[in-house]
Design brief:
This is Phenylacetate-CoA oxygenase subunit PaaC. It comes from Streptomyces marokkonensis. The structure is a single chain. This protein is mainly α. The longest helix is centred in the middle third of the chain and has 29 residues. The chain is globular, with a radius of gyration of 18 Å.
Length: 275
């Protein structure tokens, strides 16, 4: 199976002329959207869901930012940085919605910069150290596949704001997944060394796959993406071996606190600063 075949399969249903999502969506995705919490929607549950998804995006974006000046080529450095920017955009919208409905009135900065690690609800896979390029690609493939499947379901969420955020995110995440899939095939079907590293990355990611199942069970969709990519790359599917702990419950590895310390240092040192 060629790289193009993998791309065409995964991109099916998203045929538009935009090769990449970077720089799209400058219009306000919430323009004209009613921000009133719909009747029958629990505000606390809605806020918690928004915070968890925003935490996934923020922490993932911070890990991707570590590839600036470190990626194997300038083009990939720019690509990974822009994927991170897409995720930051999603995080901002989700944090803002949480602040609207949880009764605290907190803004996006309060959620991002002034909570400690134990208050974050991101999945564990997002916070793991960067590793090598193969690990970054495999993690991006898994997280973008999972998040895309989840956001597709959220497009019909009864809260119109969350549904609008999801609709905007679907286009971005489709291309994040495409980018990761193409690179995973290239690495897996490349040199002996790139094949070895990609196989190792799959083994490293495997223990964290179970945590990605939320109220929307997207196990089959994520598994199908991994099957397509690993078959094209000549790689084995990762064997699921779950680890204890759950980031959604605030149970994090020792890697999250220093990552957040770096992210939050300026805001905490100068809490009243403005642009």
């Amino acid at each position: 199976m060629s790289d193009d075949h993998v791309y065409l399969t995964l991109a099916e249903g998203h045929e538009d002329d935009t090769r990449w999502a970077y720089g799209t969506g400058f219009e306000d995705p919430l323009h004209g959207v009613d921000t009133t919490v719909p009747e029958g929607v629990d505000a606390g549950e809605l806020a918690a869901a928004c915070v968890a998804l925003a935490d996934d995006a923020l922490v993932s974006a911070q890990r991707l930012a570590e590839w600036v000046t470190r990626a194997p080529e300038l083009e990939e450095e720019v690509a990974l940085a822009n994927i991170g920017l897409d995720l930051l955009g999603q995080a901002r919208l989700l944090y803002a919605r949480a602040g609207q409905v949880d009764g605290t009135g907190r803004d996006e900065d309060a959620y991002a910069y002034f909570r400690d690690a134990g208050d974050f609800r991101n999945v564990t896979l997002a916070e793991l150290p960067g590793g090598d390029f193969a690990f970054a690609i495999v993690r991006l493939l898994v997280l973008s596949s999972w998040r895309l499947a989840h956001f597709r379901r959220l497009e019909t969420h009864p809260d119109p704001v969350l549904a609008a955020v999801a609709a905007k995110g679907v286009k971005e995440l489709t291309y994040h997944r495409q980018y990761a899939a193409e690179w995973a095939v290239r690495l897996g079907d490349g040199t002996d060394e790139s094949h070895r590293r990609t196989r190792t990355a799959l083994e490293q990611v495997a223990p964290y796959l179970g945590e990605l199942h939320t109220a929307y069970d997207v196990r089959d969709e994520v598994a199908d993406v991994l099957r397509q990519v690993t078959e094209a790359a000549g790689l084995p599917l990762p064997v699921y071996r779950p680890l204890p702990g759950c980031g959604r419950a605030g149970e994090h590895t020792e890697h999250l606190a220093p990552l957040l310390a770096e992210l939050q240092s300026v805001a905490r040192a100068h809490p009243e600063a403005t642009w």
